[in-house]
Amino acid sequence: MAATPAPPQAPPKPTWDPRRHQPSFPWLRPTIRIRLTLLYGGMFLIAGILLLSIIYLLAAQAINTGNEPLFKIVGARELQVTSDNCPAIKAENLTFSQFNDSISACIDHQRQIALDNLLSRSLLALLGLAVIAFAFGYAMAGRVLSPLGRITRTARAVAGSDLSRRIELDGPDDELKELADTFDEMLERLQRAFTAQQRFVGNASHELRTPLAINRTLLEVHLSDPTAPVELQQLGKTLLATNERSEQLVEGLLLLARSDNQVVDRKPVDLAEVAGQAVDQVHAEAEAKGVVIRGLQKPAVVQGNGVLLERIALNLVQNAVRYNVPEGGWVEVTTDVEHGQAVLVVSNTGPVVPAYEIDNLFEPFTRLRTERTGSDRGVGLGLSIVRSVARAHGGHIAARPREGGGLVMRVTLPV
After folding, report:
1. Most exposed residue of 176, 247, 304, 340, measured as fewest CB within 10 angstroms of its CB?
2. Spatial CB neighbours of 119, under 8 Å, sequence gap ≥ 6
3. In sequence order, what are the beta bridge partners of 141?
4. Closest alpha carbon to 151 in 114, 178, 191
5. Which residue has the higher pLDDT, 224 or 348?
């Protein structure tokens, strides 16, 4: 029965990387400083407009008070009046009433011109003061928010596993200093917990490996005795296989604990070389199972830990070989640089994997359709380690079912 094609998987959400590039146009970001600047400038602008409106109304009321003319000409023998601003009074043969009306209209016109000049000049002054207010508000907002900048820079350094950094903010005992002190206390506790975890992993690495190594040596010595009974040899082989499985479990748990943290010591590592070494290590197992390994590994250099990155490739190739079809199976391993990121892709034939079980494959001790059960294929930590190591390097892994059976694993790492 043919398998129905699985629906396309949504692309994984990119993990936050504290080393990511700053935006090309920081002025366009809606930062708190920009918002405070707009708030301060906007409040000043609104207050200025209100003040200007009040002054304009008061000036208009003062000018228009007593709108009636202060004098009227009722008679004259040789009265001659001229004016460049009031051409209406230049007309000849004007009656006294017409002349007085012309004088009133001219005065009203001059009052309106005065109000318009007052308004236009006030608006220009307000515009200039608004520019100064926005610039002053931007400077003051930066000064007020400078402690938050120190907190942000310290948080970015801590995100890179530098837990020794502290803010140590000076200044008045306000809310920002309280926030910085609380953050420093949290960092102190995190550093103690991280140091204790490293110490525990180191001690556990020694204490757990030593008895297992002794057990393996004793079992190998007894199995090398040709005079040992068949039943004892069979029991020894069973115990040796169990001991080997326990060693794999311990190594996987310790590696998983170490890889959950950011990688500090980074060196240039070529994914093509890492993938080639993984293929060489699994080549014998693949031949025994009749699985063909193919693919082109192009150079893809990343900054990271070579041992951990080799574990990514080795776990993916081993899973692809072990979870394959009995006959005619293949595994394709490719590396390349795409869109400024290094990509490792491992595809394989195998059983049909439902799309809803993809996420569960990355959980510890979880296998396809079985959880926390014994298996001769591994201890159920391979993909969990791959995801943890990829995250520690600022990358991610995505899996999708392959049409016809099998999986396509895609690991993306920053260059």
Report:
1. 340
2. 52, 56
3. none
4. 178
5. 348
Pair type for strands 407-414 and 341-348: antiparallel
Contacts of 345 (CB under 8 A, 6+ apart): 332, 333, 334, 335, 336, 408, 409, 410, 411
Q: Half-sphere exposure of 408 toward its Cβ, with a 13 Å CA cutoff?
A: 12
For the chain, how big is the Rg over CA atoms in Å?
41
Q: Which fold has domain 1-9+264-415?
A: Heat Shock Protein 90 (3.30.565)
- Say which amino acid occupies 283: H
In sequence order, the 6+-apart residues with CB closer than 8 A to the CB of 301 are 268, 269, 270, 271, 342, 415
Q: What is the pLDDT of residues 271-292, one digit of tens each?
A: 999 999 899 989 988 999 999 9
pLDDT tens for 294-333 read 999 999 999 888 878 888 898 899 999 998 998 889 999 9
Q: 3-class SS at 35?
A: helix
Tell me how long the chain is: 415
pLDDT over 60 (residue 135):
yes
Here the tokens at position 217 are: 């040596």
- Confidence check: pLDDT of 178 > 60: yes
Distance CA 312, CA 385 (A): 7
CA distance 72 to 96: 8
CA distances from 249 to 22, 208, 209, 330, 382 (A): 42, 11, 11, 27, 10
* Beta carbons within 8 Å of 369's beta carbon, 6+ residues apart: 357
Q: How confident is the model at residue 106 (pLDDT cuts 50, 70, 90)?
A: confident
Q: What is the DSSP pairing of strand 370-371 with strand 366-367?
A: antiparallel
Residue 21 has pLDDT above 70, yes or no: no
Domain residue ranges of the chain, discontinuous segments joined by +: 1-9+264-415, 26-159
Q: Which residue has the tokens 């311990």?
A: 250
Give the span between the Cα atoms of 335 and 274, in whole angstroms: 10
The type of residue at 273 is E
Predicted TM-score (pTM) of the model is 0.51
C-alpha span between 383 and 409 (Å, rounded): 10
Average pLDDT over residues 384-410: 88
